[in-house]
Amino acid sequence: MTVDTASNSDAALDEPLHVDGQSDLDAVVSDNDVVLVDFYADWCGPCQMLEPVVESIASDTDAAVAKVDVDANQQLAGAYGVRGVPTLVLFADGEQVEQVVGVKPEEQLRGLIERHSE
């Protein structure tokens, strides 16, 4: 599924967007002030454990949340140095500002977003 950036511009997104490729990710990052990107794999147990946290963050914060399937987007994962899943990358004002690997508590992820939100 590709991202329809025309309808996403400057609006809080209530659910994670599934992005496919660098151009989709670039569009989400450029259209939103703060973006949390979840690099995941369907076969990954920790990724599945993190899914409810990612969905909660998407619905309860002003940050946009994007999900990247590393199996379908190996080049994109490689471009961001993703060596294990889940890996979460935070963008603020178009720049990568944080990267965390593994399942993290929801409070920690919310704290990262709040630090970079206006």
TrEMBL record:
GO terms for molecular function: protein-disulfide reductase activity. Disulfide bonds join C44-C47. The active site is at C44 (nucleophile), C47 (nucleophile). Keywords: Disulfide bond, Electron transport, Redox-active center, Transport. The record marks D38 as: Deprotonates C-terminal active site Cys. InterPro entries: Thioredoxin, Thioredoxin-like_sf, Thioredoxin_CS, Thioredoxin_domain. It comes from the Archaea. Residues 1-118 form the Thioredoxin domain. One of its GO terms (cellular component) is cytoplasm. The record marks G45, P46 as: Contributes to redox potential value. Pfam families: Thioredoxin (PF00085). The keyword Electron transport applies. PANTHER family: GEO12009P1 (PTHR45663). This is Thioredoxin. It comes from Natronoarchaeum philippinense.
